[in-house]
Amino acid sequence: MGKVSFDERMMRRCFFLAEKGLGFVAPNPLVGCVITLGEEIVSEGYHAAFGEAHAERAAIANVPVEMMGKMREATLYVNLEPCAHFGKTPPCAPLIAEMGFKRVVISNRDPYKEVNGRGIEILKAAGIEVTEGVLEEQGRRLNRRFFTMQEKGRPYVILKWAKSADDFIGILDSKGKAKRTRLSNDISKLMAHRMRAYESAILIGTQTAVIDNPLLTVRLCKGQNPVRLLIDKDLIVNETSNIFSNDAKTLVYTEAASEEKEWGERVHVDYDDKGSVSIPQIFEDLAKRGLSSVIVEGGSATLQSFIDQGYWDEARVETASEIVLTRGIQAPVLKNNEVFRQDNFEGHTIEWHRHIE
Ligand code: AOF
Ligand code: ZN
Fold first, then answer.
1. Where are the beta strands (DSSP E) in the chain?
2. Under DSSP, is residue 122 helix (H, G, I), strand (E, B) or coil?
3. In a domain, 27, yes or no
4. 1 in a structural domain
5. Residue whose CA is at the smallest distance from ligand 1 atom 17
6. Does 29 reside within a domain?
7. Which residue's CA lies nearest to atom 15 of ligand 1?
């Protein structure tokens, strides 16, 4: 096997290990590390939880004692540039330099201003051969939340809705009032709960809170609950609603004054003349809190405002092919989008769109 393909195989292994941290490390990046001697894997590690050891340190700690003396011949693979800063943990690059690895292979540079290239400089200064950019695009995709937060100063935004075969996301009763409508099936619902466990926050508007009264927690699989976000200009949503349950923290973005509450916080943000919330102000608050990804779950008006202002990264659109509603609430309409994946769960197609800027 050639040198390039072995590097790529080992980097894929780093990605696989890194992903084990999904749902636990945010807003830190997902990082995995593999140490090889010749073409044999000697040790592996990954960043398992926020504040805990970085991937490189975990992999080094797992090297069998009898192999420790051979590290000057070894190669260390890690998907993110080793860090150069004292954060919650001591820096990785000086540790790697001290152990004197022969070669270090990296997928992405760390855009974090305290690191950005300085980790690589430390390794090179110690005489270590550094290979950068292995499966760079895949590495960026893996750490899309981290890169979006670092580069755009806002969380990674995932829009999510389910619609009928004829493009409605809900029904209206005889008086024209919106009614809770079930569109997803058992499998897609389970997958939606997995998504919640992976992301840091989940957002809905006033109408959805009133009509659907969702809990927005992770119940069908294991995982941490995301922070619940509610856009509620005039504090219409009753505090006995499910969104204020004890299961998770809730942040309400309101025109009213900021205030700490037993369920979380009211956060004052500006609204325009038409009553639309300032999404950049919500983003600013989320960045400050270290919430690096958000699922926008509806309703249609809330979703459309994120689309119209271009504040989204991907959208998960489920179509219940067997349900025809004839009339109701129109599904949002995406702009500048392209489908990058399609799933099918028992006749329900799930289209994953990405935003093209
Ligand atoms: C690595 N390997 O496994 C991770 C890195 O507060 P700390 O000490 O956990 O530092 C967090 C920062 O360190 C994070 O923003 C990112 O720049 C880098 N994360 N670096 O070499 C790792 N998790
Ligand atoms: Zn580190």
1. 32-37, 40-46, 75-80, 103-108, 129-131, 156-164, 168-172, 178-179, 201-205, 227-231, 250-254, 259-261, 264-268, 293-298, 314-320, 329-330, 337-345, 348-355
2. helix
3. yes
4. no
5. 112
6. yes
7. 28
pLDDT tens, residue by residue, 306-349:
999 999 999 999 999 999 999 999 999 999 999 999 999 888 99
Ligand nearest to the CA of 91: 2
Distance 300 CA to ligand 2 centre (A): 42
pLDDT digits (tens, 9 = 90+) for 164-197: 999 999 998 888 888 888 899 999 999 999 999 9
Among candidate residues 44, 56, 297, 318, the one labeled active-site is 56
Residue 29 CB less than 6 A away from ligand 1: yes
* DSSP 8-state assignment for residue 333: -
Supply the CATH number for residue 337's domain: 3.40.430.10
Report whether pLDDT(3) > 60.
no
> Hunting for tokens 């099936």 — which residue is that?
185
| Residue 199 appears among annotated catalytic residues | no
Q: Could you tell me if the CB of 115 is within 6 A of ligand 1?
A: yes
Task: Return the sign of the alpha-carbon dihedral for residues 225, 17, 131, 83.
Answer: positive
